[in-house]
Amino acid sequence: MWLSSLLAVPLIGTIIVSSIDSYKKSTEVYTKTIALIASVINLIISLVMFILFNNSTNQFQFVQEHYNVQLFDIYLGVDGISVYFVLLTT
After folding, report:
1. With 9 labelled, which of 19, 40, 80, 86 sits at a CA distance of 20 to 30 A?
2. Which pTM does this prediction carry?
């Protein structure tokens, strides 16, 4: 759930921003606000993941497997090093 939401929040934010009518001058404020909200939500999710991460194991954590896509399977997981990179990229 956590990793899927880290991928979904920026996509939803870009869909919302791209659907705003860009011809008006006042839409710049809305665009920046939506982008900031999406970034803050992404940061909060990654901070929660960092807090919940268990450093005592060497296994993947927050594992999600999605087999319902017909062309390929999706496997998401975070290990000890990549939890820092997830936090760094948000």
Report:
1. 80
2. 0.84
Residue 35 CB contacts under 8 Å (≥ 6 apart), including other chains: 13, 17
Distance CA 35, CA 15 (A): 11
Adjacent-strand bridge partners of 65: 75
In whole angstroms, give the CA distance from residue 67 to residue 84: 27
For residue 36, the model assigns a pLDDT of: 96
Give the model confidence (pLDDT) of 10-67 as tens digits.
999 999 988 887 777 778 888 899 999 999 999 999 999 999 999 998 899 999 988 8
Distance CA 83, CA 86 (A): 5
Distance CA 76, CA 32 (A): 30
Angle among Cα 69, 35, 84 to the nearest 5 degrees reads 65
